[in-house]
Amino acid sequence: MGNVGSNSSGRRRHRSNPTPGTQQPPPPPQPAEVSGNRYVFAAATPYPSQYPNPNPPPYYHYPGYYPPPPAPTPYPHPFRGAGTYPVPGPPRGNWVGPHYPCGAAVHPPYVEHQKAVTIRNDVNVKKESLRVEPDEENPGRFLVAFTFDATAPGSITVMFFAKEDLDCNLMVTKESLLKTVTVPFEQGLGQKFIQPAGTGIDFAVFDETELTKVGDDEVYPLVVKAEACPLNQGEQESDGSSAGNSQITQAVFEKDKGLYQVRVLKQILWVNRMRYELQEIYGIGNTVDGDIDGNDSGKECVICLSEPRDTTVLPCRHMCMCSGCAKVLRFQTDRCPICRQPVERLLEIKVNNGPDG
């Protein structure tokens, strides 16, 4: 009896433990070779349908970064039933673990070449001087005041809640509440302007949002139009419009410690029916000055310290480099050498300081 039991137990052990000669499971199929371009366009390539997770992890497609290679084709596991399990394959391309390969080289900023032209501006409102002052004769009202230069006689028009129309025309949207005021001026520099008493604005009548933001259809709370009018010289177009030059200053109000101040958003220049939006370029004043002084260090390129500045960095608008240094620097960095802001474009401006410029 004991021998029979031992043989039965032995047979059970033989059945549960296969001999070394048992057939081995087939090797997993080799995944197809994937070229490196697959990773570049992975954003447009869906993951395989056999992906074990129905919601594959997101990969953010930044320039120069690549997603990991797709999982290899699953195969049935011989010892764990009919389930399918992916088998990790060898690393492909530049993919190594959780690390990303080195990003692609940053494209150098585009260099735009422009030749500066001289535009005669007969009247200029100094935007930093634009402000509101209390109307002493009418408590609660405020008058617009500023300083301006004029090389020809003309007129200044103050409008509230106005928008720009075609051909330098302005349209007032709240004429019933605030009348448009036009005041003539004579030729002169550093002139002081203040709105006539009784024509100012009462801030209490309007909502603060209307005063501090640009409204729909580009309606600005404050618009000042300074026009050098040759009408007194008999110059007028056939359609009745003026042939003179105009400058439009568009601004909003902002509240600081309970008091309203003026903040200029845009200045527009109309010359010979051409519209120009004025942009400040920092450092161009030293460059366009006709008197070339070799001892003036404010005109040289900040890189080589020898050539004159002629290239402006956009969008920060720093004119700080010569064209030669700009062409070299744009392949080495995408930061402005003055403010370290990112560079989108480089604008090369050639200024003609000759007698015909």
Automatic annotation (TrEMBL):
The keyword Metal-binding applies. Residues 1-53 are annotated as: Disordered. Keywords: Lipoprotein, Metal-binding, Myristate, Transferase, Ubl conjugation pathway, Zinc, Zinc-finger. The keyword Zinc applies. CDD domains: mRING-HC-C3HC5_MGRN1-like (cd16789). Residues 301-340 form the RING-type domain. Its EC number is 2.3.2.27. SUPFAM superfamilies: RING/U-box (SSF57850). It catalyses: S-ubiquitinyl-[E2 ubiquitin-conjugating enzyme]-L-cysteine + [acceptor protein]-L-lysine = [E2 ubiquitin-conjugating enzyme]-L-cysteine + N(6)-ubiquitinyl-[acceptor protein]-L-lysine. InterPro entries: LOG2-like_mRING_C3HC5, MGRN1/RNF157-like, MGRN1/RNF157-like_N, Znf_RING, Znf_RING/FYVE/PHD. Belongs to the RING-type zinc finger family. LOG2 subfamily. This is RING-type E3 ubiquitin transferase. It comes from Parasponia andersonii. The gene is PanAIRP3.
